[in-house]
């Protein structure tokens, strides 16, 4: 197998990007967008000791776009501004004053964490990332599909699968760092694309109960294999 060697600067940038953390990420314009786009595909740890120049962050973002990150030019600019300002080589600006308590989130807002791979309307990005629209309906109609969909969002899934006739073999990270309320919101947002008659909306208590039975992404895949999807 041919090995691909990446430039040291790019490796450093990727390492720093993977080291971001939702709990330690500095406050500033663009923070939520960075979390939504980067957390989708990366496990994010503590802030890296190495800080990168704007030019190096630009290289990192270009590499991520080549690997499937879906961002508009405007979003890319906002992400680059945030990374260069708050995770750059110069000290970041002073933390802005605390803002008023934001309004409650909607399912569409929480779904921003998913659309980097699955698209704004659930259209996906075949053959890398599967669509959700048209597929979630089949899951919710299948026996055991409701619990499987919750497990996928909570714990992620890894391995080969077929979605709407297309083969996929990728890794989806879980979103256990979201609150029970946020996970229920995004699950109901997905269900709105094709829930069967009599569908019961997900509730935070149902998510909380699922947390008590943690699964690995491979175990989640086994749940899927038992659904007998058409």
From TrEMBL:
Domain of life where this protein originates: Bacteria
Q: Which Pfam families match?
A: Cytochrom_C (PF00034)
The answer on whether this UniProt entry bears the keyword Heme reads: yes
In its UniProt record, a GO molecular function of this protein is:
heme binding
Q: What are the protein's UniProt keywords? A: Heme, Iron, Metal-binding, Signal
> What InterPro entries does the record tag this protein with?
Cyt_c-like_dom, Cyt_c-like_dom_sf, Cytochrome_c-type_DH
| UniProt keyword rRNA-binding present | no
The leader peptide range reads: 1-21
Q: What is this protein called?
A: Cytochrome c-552 like protein
Task: Give the originating organism.
Answer: Thermus thermophilus (strain ATCC 27634 / DSM 579 / HB8)
